[in-house]
């Protein structure tokens, strides 16, 4: 999801509502539809699952899932909390490793135009590889039982969007801005600090949002190809084969919750770091 | 200072500029430009699209190197002048940085010069007062109108007290009313700072109203075909726009432009 | 909008293409050199033509088990896939790739259509957008790999399940990009259509859709890979015996006796991903012929 540039960041409910209704009214008109949709979906699901379903166990009603979540929270055959914790740490570790390496390579590559021209298409092509196929090999390299092997899988998935997006952000600077800096006889270092890095921030944060979900996918794919059993990926596979779909859904819910936590954390960082960017201002096309 | 009043700020001699592709010349943007600009002058470069007026501005500002000939600014090569931060530049687009407030945008060149925070703040305040945007110091560029953004760009360009202000169609994107107001504003600033201005424009009335001299250029290859003194009294005001002499000069520039035009049929698509 | 002509350093097409291909070849060779270089420095002893080279260092990742020689992987492609069959590993992987690609392609088309329809609905209704876009985004935080066993259980162990998983991974990038793309036309173009009293149907097909194409293709290039990922992931729980996903799982189990096979399957997946990507790239170049490529990265 790399080349969908910052403008395609995230259409969270736009904070630019009708001007007259005031702050509260605006928040209401932004989030109310989503809230109503949520309640409606859960209600319909609950109803359909408990009344209509011919195979009631595939999609258990939300109440049963919540039940499973509570019952298996801290131990037993499906230790949900511990598993979510392990998977979360694997994903977070992978996100950090992948981001750091992605940043380092992006800065190195964007320093030289010729290096960038050479590396960027290759990175884009490499990103077209279904990297998850490498998961078993990564497991073999870093030890199938080690959390590190899952982290490296996640890191590999995170690396490409970060590297590609940040390279673009550092290099796709308005030519007039560079001319302006040139007219001030600014050094490359000054241009980097005052123009390129701020320009790359929105690109970076977009990549992080993509990377946040990718890191979880990477961790779970790694788990899927073997390793500790107290992780979300294994719980899902094992509970599904034991036909305990309420537990499966509870585990999926936890995985999704981890993803949402990552995502929201990045949205918060974004509000702090780039309050000026159109995607954060929620501005419509003018 | 008075002895420097008639100093030459810019001297261009025999400047050529051609653009190459695969080792072949694809466009001759400038050919044999000779030009002398004295301190305190307000020079407009006017001509049809593709006559190289923007290129000439860029060559003078050392944003691009000439293919032949030489440019000296304040008696130095253009490159040295740029290193000495003798230039202020205003483009057609304001080129303000979204991530900086109005004030911080104006401070940018001062930061690059390594001035202390106190110096910077004082100077930035002064510049914003000059363009009458003091109340908007803490705003972000996207909160301002196009005309206001361009005034911020002018404030930023003047922050370093440049001896030469280069303006590349700065008001081209503004509506006529705003443009006239900005013209008066610019003249006020020019008078107050006494800086030398080179101003690229498409608009004949704008060139005549603003300038002490209008340099008329023609296209393919870009060269100077005429230089017209606009001897309208200073300071100029809205009255100036109604004086007969103003219209005479406009006519004179228009005829000069027409004389430089080779023939209709040779016009090429952009 | 007068602009001085740009210095003509921007890529001249013919030149650029040759250079690009050369770069790819150079990178590929560099990768091979790195691969074998690591083995030369820190792998297992090399025994060829009766001579032995003992690498001075020891990297655990460069052992013959963890990183087989390039030629061993290539050699494995030519040998039978398992004892008692004539079919070579290479031929088997080509067949598996084609099979997986078929699943992925069906999911890709379905996902693209779903994505476009959703985006069209969201663009025309603020309310729908507010109500559902957050969940479209949230849907991506649900790790599809975790969902795969459930999908298979619900839809049965056959290709349908795999296609559904591929669809699920495809629709998201398309939806998000198309919301932006369908909103991208110049407002004046929309006003022009309004002045013709054009129906929103014709506004959609004559203005919004053409304007969104560059965005669509940007998303499709991402989705091409995603659909293959979905197909590979889905084949495991889906119990599909003919595709790459199953090959990877099987060869992973046989890793100790023949690591080359897993590596060969990984190479096949990589090639498949790149081929699909390049196909979409060609379709993009064909469709957007003559447009300035401002939006295309």
What would your notes on this structure say?
Chain A has 286 residues and is mainly alpha-helical. Helices cover 73% and strands 0% of the residues of chain A. Chain A is flat and about 70 Å long. The N terminus of chain A is likely disordered. Chain B is α/β, with parallel strands linked by helices and 270 residues long. In chain B, 35% of the residues lie in helices and 26% in strands. In chain B, the strands form 2 sheets. Chain B has a 6-stranded mixed sheet with strand order 6-7-8-3-9-10, with helices on both faces. In chain B, β9 and β10 form a beta hairpin. Chain B is globular, with a radius of gyration of 19 Å. Chain B starts with 7 loop residues before the first strand and ends in a 10-residue tail after the last helix. The N terminus of chain B is likely disordered. Chain C has a two-stranded antiparallel ribbon with strand order 1-2. Chain C is elongated. Chain C is built from 10 helices and 2 strands. Chain C has 297 residues and is mostly helical. Helix content of chain C is 72%, strand content 2%. The N terminus of chain C is likely disordered.
Task: Give the helices and strands, then pairings.
The complex is a heterotrimer of chains A (286), B (270) and C (297).
Chain A lengths: L21 H31 L9 H10 L8 H32 L1 H15 L7 H8 L4 H25 L3 H9 L4 H37 L7 H10 L3 H29 L4 H4 L5
Chain B lengths: L7 E14 L2 E15 L3 E5 L6 H8 L7 E6 L2 E2 H6 L3 E4 L11 H12 L3 H14 L15 H13 L5 E5 L7 H18 L2 E6 L2 H7 L2 E6 L4 E7 L14 H17 L10
Parallel strand pairs in B: 3-8, 3-9, 6-7, 7-8
Antiparallel strand pairs in B: 1-2, 1-4, 4-5, 9-10
Helix pairs in contact in B: 3-4, 3-5, 4-5, 7-8
Chain C lengths: L12 H30 L3 E3 L2 E3 L16 H9 L10 H36 L1 H16 L2 H12 L3 H24 L4 H9 L4 H39 L5 H10 L5 H29 L10
Antiparallel strand pairs in C: 1-2
Helix pairs in contact in C: 2-10, 3-4, 3-6, 3-8, 3-10, 5-6, 5-8, 6-8, 8-9, 8-10, 9-10
Quick structural summary:
The complex is a heterotrimer of chains A (286), B (270) and C (297). By secondary structure, chain A is mainly α.
């Amino acid at each position: 999801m790399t080349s969908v540039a910052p403008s395609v960041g995230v259409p969270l409910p736009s904070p630019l509502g009708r001007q007259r209704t005031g702050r509260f009214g605006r928040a209401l008109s932004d989030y109310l539809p989503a809230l109503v949709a949520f309640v409606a979906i859960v209600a319909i699901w609950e109803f359909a699952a408990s009344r209509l379903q011919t195979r009631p166990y595939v999609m258990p009603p939300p109440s049963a899932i919540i039940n499973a979540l509570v019952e298996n929270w801290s131990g037993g055959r499906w230790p949900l909390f511990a598993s979510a914790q392990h998977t979360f740490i694997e994903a977070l570790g992978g996100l950090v490793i992948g981001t750091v390496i992605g940043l380092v390579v992006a800065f190195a590559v964007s320093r030289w135009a010729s290096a960038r021209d050479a590396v960027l298409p290759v990175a884009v092509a490499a990103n077209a590889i279904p990297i998850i196929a490498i998961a078993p090999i990564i497991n073999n390299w870093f030890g199938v039982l080690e959390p590190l092997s899952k982290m490296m899988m996640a890191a590999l998935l995170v690396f490409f969007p970060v590297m590609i997006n940040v390279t673009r952000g550092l290099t796709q600077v308005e030519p007039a801005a560079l001319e302006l800096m040139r007219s001030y006889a600014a050094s490359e270092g000054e241009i980097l600090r005052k123009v390129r890095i701020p320009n790359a921030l929105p690109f970076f944060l977009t990549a992080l949002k993509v990377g946040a979900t990718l890191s979880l996918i990477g961790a779970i794919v790694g788990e899927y190809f073997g390793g500790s059993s107290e992780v979300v990926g294994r719980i899902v596979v094992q509970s599904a084969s034991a036909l305990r779909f309420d537990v499966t859904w509870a585990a999926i819910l936890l995985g999704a919750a981890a993803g949402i936590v990552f995502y929201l954390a990045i949205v918060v960082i974004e509000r702090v770091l780039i309050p000026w960017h159109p995607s954060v201002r929620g501005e419509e096309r003018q | 200072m008075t002895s420097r009043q008639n100093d030459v700020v810019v001297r261009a001699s025999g400047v050529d500029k051609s653009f190459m592709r695969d080792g072949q010349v694809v466009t001759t943007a400038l050919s044999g430009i000779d030009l002398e600009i004295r301190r305190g002058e307000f020079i407009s470069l006017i001509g049809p699209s593709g006559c190289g007026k923007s290129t000439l501005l860029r060559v003078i500002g050392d944003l691009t190197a000439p293919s032949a000939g030489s440019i000296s600014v304040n008696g130095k090569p253009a490159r040295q002048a740029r290193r000495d931060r003798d230039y202020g530049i205003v483009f057609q687009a304001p080129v303000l940085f979204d991530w900086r407030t109005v004030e911080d945008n104006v401070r940018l060149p001062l930061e690059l010069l390594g001035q202390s925070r106190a110096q910077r703040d004082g100077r930035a305040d002064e510049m914003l007062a000059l363009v009458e945007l003091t109340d908007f110091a803490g705003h972000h560029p996207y909160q301002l109108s196009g005309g206001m953004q361009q005034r911020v760009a002018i404030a930023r360009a003047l922050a370093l007290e440049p001896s030469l202000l280069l303006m590349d169609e700065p008001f081209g994107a503004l509506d006529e009313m705003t443009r006239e107001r900005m013209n008066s504003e610019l003249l006020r600033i020019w008078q107050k700072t006494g800086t030398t201005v080179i101003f690229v424009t498409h608009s004949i009335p704008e060139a005549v109203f603003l300038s002490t001299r209008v340099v008329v250029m023609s296209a393919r290859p870009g060269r100077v075909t005429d230089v017209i003194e606009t001897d309208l009294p200073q300071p100029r005001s809205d009255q100036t726009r109604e004086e007969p002499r103003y219209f005479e000069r406009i006519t004179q520039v228009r005829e000069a432009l027409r004389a430089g035009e080779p023939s209709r049929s040779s016009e090429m698509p952009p | 909008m007068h602009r001085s002509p740009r210095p003509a350093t921007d890529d001249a097409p013919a030149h650029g293409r040759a250079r690009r291909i050369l770069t790819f070849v150079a990178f590929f060779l560099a990768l091979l050199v790195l691969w074998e270089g690591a083995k030369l420095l820190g792998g297992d002893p090399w025994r060829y033509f009766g001579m032995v080279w003992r690498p001075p260092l020891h990297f655990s990742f460069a052992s013959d088990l963890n990183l087989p020689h390039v030629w061993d992987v290539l050699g494995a492609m030519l040998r039978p896939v398992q004892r008692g069959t004539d079919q070579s590993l290479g031929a088997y992987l080509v067949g598996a790739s084609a099979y997986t690609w078929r699943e992925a392609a069906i999911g890709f088309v379905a996902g693209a259509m779903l994505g476009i329809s959703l985006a069209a609905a969201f663009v025309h209704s603020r309310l729908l957008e507010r109500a559902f876009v957050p969940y479209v985004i949230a849907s991506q935080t649900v790790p599809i790999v975790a969902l795969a066993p459930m999908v298979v259980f619900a839809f049965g162990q056959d290709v349908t399940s795999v296609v559904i998983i591929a669809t699920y991974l495809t629709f998201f990038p398309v939806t998000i990009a198309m919301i932006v793309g369908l909103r991208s036309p110049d407002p004046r173009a929309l006003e022009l259509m309004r002045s013709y009293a054009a129906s929103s149907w014709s506004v959609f097909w004559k203005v919004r859709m053409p304007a969104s194409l560059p965005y669509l293709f940007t998303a499709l290039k991402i989705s091409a890979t995603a659909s293959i990922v979905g197909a590979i992931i889905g084949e495991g729980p889906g119990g599909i015996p003919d595709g790459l996903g199953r090959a990877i799982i099987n060869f992973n189990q046989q890793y100790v006796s023949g690591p080359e096979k897993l590596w060969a399957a990984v190479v096949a997946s990589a090639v498949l991903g790149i081929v699909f990507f390049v196909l979409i790239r060609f379709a993009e170049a064909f469709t957007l012929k003559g447009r300035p490529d401002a939006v295309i990265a």
